[in-house]
């Protein structure tokens, strides 16, 4: 798979281009697996990075998935600067909808008391919501004496894992403008 950068009206975006497909076996364990990405394809800056991923484990309890839990970063030399690419370093079985750390970097201008302006790199954990939400029937009323016995089932529509809470981070960017970035604090399943 290679990664191409395209410029859209909303700004630059990365698009993953699938070049070939293969079958994957489902592992019985939850482990980190290699995931190679090619950046700056067919340029002098072409680089292949193992960004990692998580195995699709079979036999996981319902509502749990093998998901990334620890991340690392790799520096990627580009025509204009150095990019920081987030990579997966560890995976665990987790409930299907949860927040993970996701760090983004911004230039911040700081005005010191003596009038000197300093440009610094600001690191913000903006977070991401990962996972999916279980579908199917849900028990609304269980027997008090036997929790395995369900009296009333509800049909549940498919839902997605979305941000629930946010926190804002404001700073002055390198152009002297106030910039506000929202970071995700929690996630939930929503129809």
TrEMBL record:
PANTHER family: IM:7138239 (PTHR39313). This is Im:7138239.
